Amino acid sequence: MIRRWWKTREYRRLYDEAADAFAGGRDAAAEEACARALALAESLYGPDHPELLSLLYATSSAQLAQGRLDEAEASCRRAIGIAEEAPAAEPPLPRLLMQLASILERRGDAEALRALFEQMLAGYARMRDPDAGEHAAVLTRLGLLLGRQGQREEAQPLLAQAITLREEAFGAEHPAVAEALFNAATLRPRESPVGPAEEMLRRALAIAEHPSGAGMDPCVRASILHNLAVLREEQGATEEAASLYERALATREAQVGVSHASLRPTLVRFGQLRHAAGQLTGALSLYERALVIAEAELGVGHAIPEAIKAWMAEARSRS
Question: Which fold has domain 1-120?
Fold first, then answer.
């Protein structure tokens, strides 16, 4: 009895130690504390008890943070196996499956990742009252995966359903809805009408700029502005596009500084817009900034900085 009491006390101490290490970003220390706590938990409760779930999840997270993907996957799959047999699990099974998805995504295993998301969606379809926010998260990740693979037609209904579910879960003006609108507009099929995409981006921007969107990542707001600018430029509304590009740059610069790699696409698009309009001084200024960023990011001689140099040379030849 005394020995069990001591083990339980030591287990709780190690559990708290692991939590403190995680909070401080000390992944190796957290993993070590989890391993020691896990050994005690197995002794106290058995190797398949739900009490082990949070430790296995934490262990997997620490291993993933350190880039040890095989070990992270093994820890996560063990937790999933326990959770599938437990009447109630903490962390819940969907969170463990999303952890596995993060590992597979980091590994670059798109086929396994797609199969996992499809398995999760089949599970949600069988549920009487699934969590709308969690369901939307899986739809979003599968839709984005398909979009990255060029399968936009297949991605679109998933991303549209994610909008509906996020509206149901969080309300129509929530930042999560703005992100869902942005995803669906950005990955619209290439031959589809631009009107619905413009409407979605404008609605996303309205949410982002409303007080209810104050907690939204400013970089997402900048991406909404950039993509709306691209769309308006393609429609021939060049003055509005220029204003949107300026706002996108200002929003992102306020968040990441003036030399961050994420600024390059907007600098290039805005530069090309100025270039086409004959505003060569403005175009060159934007190209020069984009070139510095591109060479720092990709290296001198890479195709992208070389293309920027060619645009600069053409602009100079006309000035």
Answer: 1.25.40
Query: Which tokens is 58 given?
Result: 């934490």
Query: Cα separation of 231 and 181, whole Å?
Result: 15
Go through 158-181 and write b for each residue having 16 or more CB atoms within 10 A of its CB, e for each that does not: bbbbbbebbbebbeeebbbbbbbb
Q: Are 244 and 228 in contact (CB under 8 A)?
A: yes
What's the CA gap between 262 and 242, in Å, rounded?
Answer: 18
CA-closest candidate to residue 233, choices 284, 268, 262, 270: 270
**What whole-number percentage of the chain has pLDDT above 90?**
78
Instruction: Please check the confidence at residue 192 and state whether its pLDDT lies above 60.
Output: yes
pTM: 0.86
Q: Which residues belong to CATH 1.25.40.10 in the chain?
A: 1-120, 195-208+216-319
Q: How far apart are CA 176 and CA 283, in angstroms?
A: 35
Query: Is residue 1's pLDDT more than 60?
Result: no
Q: What is the DSSP letter of 56?
A: H
| CA nearest neighbour of 154 among 144, 162, 168, 164 | 144
Domain covering 195-208+216-319 in this structure, CATH number: 1.25.40.10
